[in-house]
C-alpha cells in the first residue's frame, strides 16, 4: 500500500536539523555510559516477545494482570541470568514500561527499610528483599486518610507479655487502601500505624508485617487482603494490584517495628532518637525526586508522538505554496507544541540536578547534618507537584494536537495519560505538596532578618531589592539575557510570597485565616517552583554543555522561560514588576524562538531516543508511516475478527428485518 506522506516528510525534516543529534542523545541520557546502557536495554526489551505491549489496552483485567506478573517474573529472571547491574535493571524496568509490584518493592519498601531500619534490621530484611525472597509494599494510605498521615488509624499496640505488637484495623476507614503491589503480589507490607504502648499513643511509626504465606501465598490468619478494583483507562495503571488490607489483632514480633528513629524496649519503654521524625517520610522524598525525571520522560514521549505526527499530517494550504501544509507549520500548533517540547528538556535538566540534591542530602543525613532537609523537602514536594501536573496536562494537550487520531488507543496517548495521571495524586496530592512549599516559604521569610536563606531560597535574602526594583526591558532582545529573566522570576516569586506573608502577619495567626489565604499560598509556591525550574535549566546550560548542542539548548531554555512568563502573565503583572508592554515584547521573542525550533523539531524529539516499541504509537513512528499503520492496526481490532459481527443474529438482524417500530411510527 502506498503512503503519500510519511516517509519523505520525516527524512526531509531530519535533513534540516542544525545540531549534533548524537551529542544531544548522550546529553539527554545523562552521559555516554547511561546512553549505551539505555540503548542496550531498549533493544533487549524490544526483541523479547514476553515484553510485548501489543494488545495491552484490549486485555481484560485478569489477563492484563497475569501478563504483568509474567513480565515482571521474566524481567527478574533476565536480570539474574544476564547478571545485569542495578542501573541496567532499572533501565530494563523502564523499557518494560508498565507499573507493577516490583516498583513498590524496589522503589519504596527497600528505601524505607534503609532509611528507618536499624543496622541490625537492615541486615535481617534487606538480603531477603534484594533477592526477592520476600515481596514488599508500602502500606501507608487508608480508606479514610491519605494526605493526613498523622490521621491514620491502624494501631500497633505493644504487648510486653509476649514481646509482640498487635496490629489492628479498628474501623472501616482504617483499612489500608491503595498500596501498589499489596492487592495480590506482596508477602510483606511496610505498615504505617499508630504505636501504642501502655495505653499511650505515640503517633505514626513503621512496621514490617508479613501478610501472605511464603509457602502457598495465602493470606496469613486474621489478615484480609485483596485488590481494590479497576482504575481509570484501559491498560494504564491497571497492571498494578493496588490493594486493601485489614488486620484483626495480628501479632508481629517487636523487632518488626523499624527502630532507627524510635525504639520500644522489651519492657515497653518508648525511646525517641534525636533524629527528626520527618526522616520517617524519607521514602516519599526519594520517590518524589525521581518523579521529576520521570515527568520529563513521559512528557517527551507524548511530545515525540505529537511532533512527528504534526510533521506528517497535512491540512489545508495557502496560495503561496503548492500542496497542503504540514500542521506543524501552523503558528497555533507551534505555540501549543513547542513549549511542551522545551518543558520536557527543562525537566530533564532539573531532574539531573535533583539527583545531585538528593545525593547531597543523603550524605549529610549520614553525617547527622539535618540542616538542608526542609529545603530538600520543599524542592522535592514542589517540583513533584508542578512537573506531574504539567506533564499530565501536556500529554492530554498532545492528544488534542493529534486531532481525531490522537483519540485512538493506536496513538499510544490515551494509555500514556491513564498510566501517568495518578502521579498528580500519589506520593502526595499536588495541592497538599504546594501547601508544604508555601509553609516553607513563610517560615523562611519570617526568619529572613536572622537566618540567611540558602539554596533555592537564597533569592529571598534579596527581598528588599526584589520588591523595589522593576524590570528594565525596553526592547525585545533585552529579554535575551538569562540574568534579566532570572530576576523577573525571582521578583515575581518574592513579591507573591511577601504579599501573602504580610497579609497573614497582619492577622491573628488563626488557622481560619491561613485557610482563607491558601489559594494565594499555592500560587506563591507555584511561582517559587517555576523559578527553580527556570534557574536550574539555565544553570545546567552554563555548566559545560557540549558545543554542538548548546545553541539548541539555549533556544529551548528561552522558549521554556518565555512561555512560563507569558502563561503566568497575570501574576507577573499583578506584582507590578513587569508591564504589559514588556510581556508583549516577550511574546514576540517567543515567536522568534519557535522559528528557531521549527527546522529542528523532529530531530529534537529524535534526541529523546524513544524506540518505536517503547512509544507504542502509530502516529509517533520513527519512519512517519502513519496512515499505513493506522489502517493495518484496525484489522487487529477484535470486532473485526469476523466480517459479520457477533450479535448480528440476535440483535441487528431483528432490527433490520422485522421492522419492529414501523407500526407505531408516524414517519
Ligand atoms: C517490570 C518488572 C521489572 C522487574 C525489575 C526488578 C528489578 C529492577 C529494579 C528496580 C525496578 C524498580 C525501580 C523503582 C522505581 C521507583 C518508582 C517508584 C514508583 C512509585 C509509585 C508510586 C506509588 C505511590 C505511592 C504512594 O502514594 S505512598 C503514599 C504517599 N503519601 C503521601 O505522600 C502523603 C502526603 N502527606 C504528607 O506527606 C504529610 O502528611 C504532610 C502533608 C507533609 C503533612 O505531614 P505532617 O506530619 O502532618 O506534617 P506537618 O505538621 O505539616 O509538617 C511537619 C514538619 O515536617 C516537614 N515535612 C513534611 N514532610 C516532610 C518530608 N517528606 N521530609 C522532610 N520534612 C517534611 C514539614 O515541612 C514540617 O516542617 P516544619 O515543622 O519545619 O514546618
Ligand atoms: C495509583 C495510585 C497509587 C498509590 N499507591 C500508593 C502506595 O503504594 N502506598 C500508599 O500508601 N498510598 C498509595 N496511594 C495513595 C496516595 O498516596 C494518596 O491517594 C494521596 O496521598 C492523596 O491522598 P488522599 O487520597 O487522601 O487525597 P485527599 O487528601 O482526600 O484529597 C482529596 C482532595 O482534598 C484536597 N485536600 C485535602 N486536604 C487538604 C488541605 N489540608 N488543604 C487543601 N486541600 C486539601 C486535595 O487537594 C484533593 O483535592 C496511591 C494512590 C494512587 C492513585
From TrEMBL:
One of its GO terms (biological process) is fatty acid beta-oxidation using acyl-CoA oxidase. FAD binds at residues 141, 180. One of its GO terms (cellular component) is peroxisome. Its cofactor is FAD. InterPro entries: ACOX_C_alpha1 (IPR055060), Acyl-CoA_ox_N (IPR029320), Acyl-CoA_Oxase/DH_mid-dom_sf (IPR046373), Acyl-CoA_oxidase (IPR012258), Acyl-CoA_oxidase_C (IPR002655), AcylCo_DH-like_C (IPR036250), AcylCoA_DH/ox_N_sf (IPR037069), AcylCoA_DH/oxidase_NM_dom_sf (IPR009100). Pfam families: ACOX, ACOX_C_alpha1, Acyl-CoA_ox_N. It is found in: Peroxisome. Keywords: FAD, Fatty acid metabolism, Flavoprotein, Lipid metabolism, Oxidoreductase, Peroxisome. Residues 482-656 form the Acyl-CoA oxidase C-terminal domain. The active site is at residue 427. Residues 21-135 form the Acyl-coenzyme A oxidase N-terminal domain. Residues 281-442 form the Acyl-CoA oxidase C-alpha1 domain. Belongs to the acyl-CoA oxidase family. This is Acyl-coenzyme A oxidase. It comes from Physcomitrium patens.
Amino acid at each position: 500500500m502506498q503512503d503519500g506522506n510519511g516517509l519523505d516528510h520525516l527524512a526531509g525534516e531530519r535533513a534540516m536539523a542544525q545540531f549534533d543529534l548524537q551529542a544531544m542523545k548522550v546529553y539527554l541520557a545523562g552521559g555516554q555510559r547511561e546512553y549505551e546502557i539505555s540503548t542496550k536495554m531498549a533493544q533487549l526489551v524490544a526483541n523479547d516477545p514476553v515484553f510485548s505491549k501489543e494488545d495491552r489496552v484490549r486485555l481484560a483485567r485478569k489477563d492484563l494482570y497475569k501478563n504483568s506478573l509474567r513480565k515482571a517474573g521474566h524481567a527478574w529472571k533476565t536480570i539474574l541470568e544476564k547478571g545485569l547491574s542495578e542501573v541496567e535493571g532499572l533501565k530494563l524496568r523502564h523499557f518494560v514500561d508498565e507499573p507493577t509490584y516490583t516498583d513498590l518493592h524496589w522503589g519504596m519498601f527497600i528505601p524505607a527499610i534503609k532509611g528507618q531500619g536499624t543496622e541490625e534490621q537492615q541486615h535481617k530484611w534487606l538480603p531477603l528483599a534484594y533477592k526477592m525472597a520476600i515481596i514488599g509494599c508500602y502500606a501507608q494510605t487508608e480508606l479514610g486518610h491519605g494526605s493526613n498521615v498523622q490521621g491514620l488509624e491502624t494501631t500497633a499496640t505493644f504487648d510486653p507479655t509476649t514481646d509482640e505488637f498487635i496490629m489492628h484495623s479498628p474501623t472501616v476507614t482504617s483499612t489500608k487502601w491503595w498500596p501498589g503491589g499489596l492487592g495480590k503480589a506482596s508477602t510483606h507490607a511496610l505498615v504505617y500505624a499508630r504505636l501504642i504502648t501502655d495505653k499511650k499513643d505515640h503517633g505514626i511509626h513503621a512496621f514490617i508485617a508479613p501478610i501472605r504465606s511464603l509457602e502457598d501465598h495465602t493470606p496469613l490468619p486474621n489478615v484480609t487482603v485483596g485488590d481494590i478494583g479497576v482504575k481509570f483507562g484501559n491498560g494504564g495503571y491497571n497492571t498494578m494490584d493496588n490493594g486493601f488490607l485489614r488486620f484483626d489483632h495480628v501479632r508481629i514480633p517487636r523487632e518488626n517495628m523499624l527502630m532507627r528513629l524510635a525504639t520500644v524496649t522489651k519492657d515497653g519503654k518508648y525511646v525517641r532518637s534525636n533524629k527528626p521524625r520527618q526522616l520517617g517520610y524519607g521514602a516519599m522524598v526519594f520517590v518524589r525526586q525521581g518523579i521529576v525525571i520521570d515527568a520529563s520522560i513521559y512528557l517527551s514521549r507524548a511530545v515525540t508522538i505529537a511532533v512527528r505526527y504534526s510533521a506528517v499530517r497535512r491540512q489545508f494550504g495557502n496560495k503561496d505554496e503548492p500542496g497542503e501544509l504540514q500542521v506543524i507549520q501552523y503558528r497555533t500548533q507551534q505555540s501549543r507544541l513547542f513549549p511542551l517540547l522545551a518543558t520536557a528538556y527543562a525537566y530533564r535538566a532539573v531532574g539531573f540536578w535533583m539527583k545531585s540534591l538528593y545525593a547531597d542530602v543523603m550524605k549529610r543525613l549520614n553525617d547527622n547534618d539535618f540542616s538542608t532537609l526542609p529545603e530538600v523537602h520543599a524542592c522535592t514536594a514542589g517540583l513533584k507537584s508542578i512537573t506531574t501536573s504539567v506533564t499530565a496536562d501536556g500529554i492530554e494537550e498532545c492528544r488534542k494536537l493529534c486531532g481525531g487520531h490522537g483519540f485512538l488507543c493506536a496513538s499510544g496517548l490515551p494509555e500514556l495519560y491513564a498510566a501517568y495521571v495518578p502521579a498528580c495524586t500519589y506520593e502526595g496530592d499536588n495541592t497538599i505538596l504546594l501547601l508544604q512549599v508555601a509553609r516553607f516559604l513563610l517560615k523562611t521569610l519570617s526568619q529572613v532578618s536572622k537566618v540567611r536563606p540558602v539554596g533555592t531560597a537564597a533569592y529571598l535574602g534579596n527581598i528588599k531589592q526584589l520588591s523595589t526594583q522593576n524590570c528594565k526591558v525596553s526592547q525585545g532582545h533585552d529579554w535575551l539575557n538569562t540574568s534579566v529573566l532570572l530576576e523577573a522570576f525571582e521578583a515575581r516569586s518574592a513579591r507573591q510570597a511577601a504579599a501573602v506573608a504580610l497579609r497573614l502577619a497582619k492577622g491573628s495567626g488563626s488557622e481560619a485565616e491561613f485557610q482563607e489565604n491558601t489559594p494565594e499560598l499555592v500560587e506563591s509556591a507555584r511561582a517559587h517552583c517555576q523559578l527553580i525550574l527556570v534557574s536550574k535549566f539555565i544553570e545546567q546550560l552554563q555548566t559545560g554543555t557540549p558545543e554542538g548542542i548548546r545553541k539548541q539548548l539555549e533556544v529551548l531554555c528561552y522558549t521554556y522561560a518565555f512561555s512560563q512568563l507569558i502563561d503566568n502573565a497575570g501574576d507577573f503583572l499583578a506584582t507590578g514588576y513587569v508591564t504589559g508592554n514588556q510581556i508583549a515584547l516577550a511574546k514576540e521573542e517567543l515567536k522568534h524562538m519557535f522559528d528557531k525550533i521549527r527546522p529542528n523539531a523532529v530531530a529534537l524529539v529524535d534526541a529523546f531516543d524513544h524506540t518505536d516499541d517503547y512509544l507504542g504509537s502509530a502516529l509517533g513512528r520513527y519512519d512517519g508511516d502513519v496512515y499505513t499503520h493506522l489502517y493495518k492496526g484496525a484489522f487487529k481490532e477484535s470486532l473485526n475478527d469476523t466480517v459479520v459481527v457477533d450479535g448480528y443474529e440476535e440483535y441487528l438482524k431483528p432490527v433490520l428485518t422485522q421492522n419492529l417500530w414501523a407500526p407505531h411510527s408516524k414517519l
